[in-house]
Structures are given as structure tokens and as C-alpha cells.
Design a protein that fits this description.
With about 110 residues, this protein is mainly α. It has four helices and no strands.
Length: about 110
């Protein structure tokens, strides 16, 4: 290869030589079809994890709210108001347990 400009090789020629005969690859050096499968599987896995955590949160919230209302029959009087409902819905059984402990220690809601 002869240089035209006093010893400098044109970059365009080097780029064309190195890219000749290669196929287009996406992320991680895989073909676009494999990339689509990988991304699709990752999205399905993410959806499963989110739904699993949401299910656990809903069950824990329901148990906490049931425990809050059932405590009235046991004799532990925790008033049912907005604060206690939010605490038992968000924290579940742990929240109800904390409110019972605070009630026994003399804290009023």
C-alpha cells in the first residue's frame, strides 16, 4: 500500500479492510436474535420477581389487618384509626406486634 500524503496511511482504507466480511453484532457480541431472546428472558424473570414480592406484600398486609381486628376480641384494645390501619397494612404482622408491644408499655394511639 503506497502512501499518498508523505508517509500517512489513510484511516478510511484501514477501517474498510478490518470490517470487510464481518457481520453486525449487538450487545455482548451476540447476534440480534440471541440478544432479543436474552432481553426477553430477563424481562420475564423481572416480572416474576416483582409479582412474587407483590404477592408476599399483599398476604402480609392482609394478615396484619386481620390481626389488628382480631386483637379486639382477645382483649388488647388498639384503636382502629388511620394510623393503625396504615401501620398494619404496610408492616403486616410485625407492625401489629410492635403496636401491641407499645400498647402494653402504655403508649396510646
Amino acid at each position: 500500500m503506497k502512501s499518498i500524503d508523505g508517509g500517512r496511511i489513510m484511516m478510511l482504507e484501514i477501517v474498510n479492510v478490518t470490517q470487510a466480511g464481518t457481520t453486525s453484532h449487538g450487545m455482548f457480541g451476540l447476534t440480534p436474535a440471541v440478544n432479543g431472546i436474552v432481553v426477553g428472558l430477563l424481562l420475564v424473570l423481572l416480572a416474576i420477581v416483582i409479582l412474587w414480592k407483590l404477592k408476599q406484600f399483599i398476604i402480609n398486609s392482609a394478615l396484619g389487618l386481620m390481626a389488628l381486628f382480631l386483637l379486639q376480641f382477645v382483649g388488647i384494645t388498639i384503636p382502629v384509626n388511620l394510623v393503625t390501619i396504615i401501620v398494619s397494612a404496610v408492616l403486616g404482622l410485625i407492625g401489629v406486634g410492635l403496636m401491641v408491644l407499645l400498647t402494653v408499655l402504655g403508649f396510646k394511639f
